[in-house]
Amino acid sequence: MKIVQKALAFVGLLSLCGLFIYALQDAPTDENFETKLINDYNVYALQIPDNLDFAGEPLPLSNPDIYERMDRELLVNTYWQSNGLLMFKRAEKYFPIIEPILAKYGVPDDFKYLAVIESGLTNAVSPAGARGVWQIMKTTGRENGLEINENVDERYHLEKATEVACKYLLRSKAKLGSWTLAAAAYNAGTAGISRRLKEQQVTNYYDLLLGEETGRYMFRIVALKEILSHPSKYGFNFRSKDLYKNVPTYKVEVDTAVTDFSKFAQNFKINYKILKLHNPWLREPHLNNKSRKVYQIEIPEEGYYQ
Known about the structure:
- Helices cover 53% and strands 5% of the residues.
- By secondary structure, the chain is mainly alpha-helical.
- It is globular, with a radius of gyration of 28 Å.
- It folds into 2 domains: 53-242, Lysozyme, CATH 1.10.530; 249-300.
- It comes from Neotamlana sargassicola.
- It holds the Pfam family SLT.
């Protein structure tokens, strides 16, 4: 019995030694850690396309300054992978709403990428007070017919806000002469861009010396256009079912006050949260409507939120 116990103890000791040696061989030394890191994760320099444009207006990529600035934005947006995937997902949901409105006003389709960099296709709020997907200021919204008050803020109404953006861009294009300058003016103001062109005695955005935000603006737009147009080229992999889809809705006209939107929502077999998701421009849980204005409220088709 003692002989058997000693034999078992010896076998156990050998096994323990073997495990110890194996563990040492697999331990994370500097050398094998670096090898594993290199094999598991790679970061590549990007090949800048020979020809990039915005709304048919080419970027002068032969200019080394323009090349470097374009390279920066492609790198930043390619390797910010989580944000990139969200842009693909949201674009599938919101571009089908934005694109026909741009076409209706004769604004190039590339301007949908302006909305991407303005807000990430969310109802963002800027420190300066801009609101919604198109980041419209209160004065600009009111000048273009949007209702903006504590009860209703149509800057959060995607269709109406897109129309306001189109009107602004068309006026800027008429004054400044190019779609690129019109896009830059969306960030810095038409008067601001016009003044800088005059001061610096140039006629092209890419010849202007601008502040950090406006100086990066067009490069960011073009980078998002390039990446969203060629996902696999920049390492983004997803299936159609991974993208966000719009929930079908129908419109209900309201020309009176609504005292309680929670009760209103229940009439359509939804709750207040769902009503607000589809009508973010309704800012309070009631509608004053003293003027008896006709509002169109989006109601999701039955069954999508069961």
